[in-house]
Amino acid sequence: MSQVIGIVGAGQMARALAGGFLQAGLVEGEDVVFFDPSLEAATAFQAAVPGSRGLDDERSVATEAGLLLLAVKPQVMPVVLERLAGQINPGTLVVSIAAGIQLASLVEALGSDRVIRVMPNTPCLVGRGASAFSCTDAVGSEDCQRVQDLLESVGIAIQVQENQMDAVTGLSGSGPAYIYTTIEALSDAGVAQGLPRDVASQLAVQTTLGAAVMVQQTGEHPGVLKDQVTSPGGTTIAGLQSLADHGLPAALMAAVQSATRRSRELGQ
Description:
Structural class: alpha/beta
Strand order of the largest sheet: 3-2-1-4-5-6-7-8
Number of strands: 8
Order of helices and strands: EHEHEHEHEHEEHEHHHHHH
Number of domains: 2
Shape: elongated
CATH topology of the largest domain: Rossmann fold
Oligomer: single chain
Radius of gyration: 21 Å
CATH architecture of the largest domain: 3-Layer(aba) Sandwich
Strand content: 5-15%
Distance between the termini: 33 Å
């Protein structure tokens, strides 16, 4: 099978993924071909992936690729699939990162059953992504492992059942926005209590990062780590009571549920 990676859609996520593949030494720039109708996106992609080649259209990319990455938005995917229908070589592995688009829909539209569905997230841009993927039955373990290796060049990658992919989208796909909102709110709260903005922002960012790393490195349940910060009658329990009173846990659960539901809608 060709080792060429073809990418349709050269936006921010495509640049992050391809740049990670390159930096990890999994591919050479010359092994990457791509297409994007936007000159600005194409120029940015070539800067991020030196040696890559921009081609004239989706079909040209599909013809050369051993692995074809479809990195377009769900709303654009039907047009791309129509243009690629019947153009996929039998040995080509197709990987889609479009939210909500189901494997069955991709297989039917492309006429190929060698398809993997992936949900990455934007921290891939800084090598701290959280991705999940699901494969059709026609995809062998070797190809699944290849895709996992590629995704792990920009973070972690977990294989899941396809019926779990919409929940992945709601949690980790959309999740960075929930965390950015939390950091912004913490910073605003610090300013409201008299801290300079730069101080409040630095403290909010580092506190969020430090707490996440502690969960990751200690392996402790977040509830256990929370209790270690919480003294009887102290400041932290007062703050936690306020969070509960204002519905933060319920709001986060509702956000994941809403984003999951929207992912399902996009796939219909």
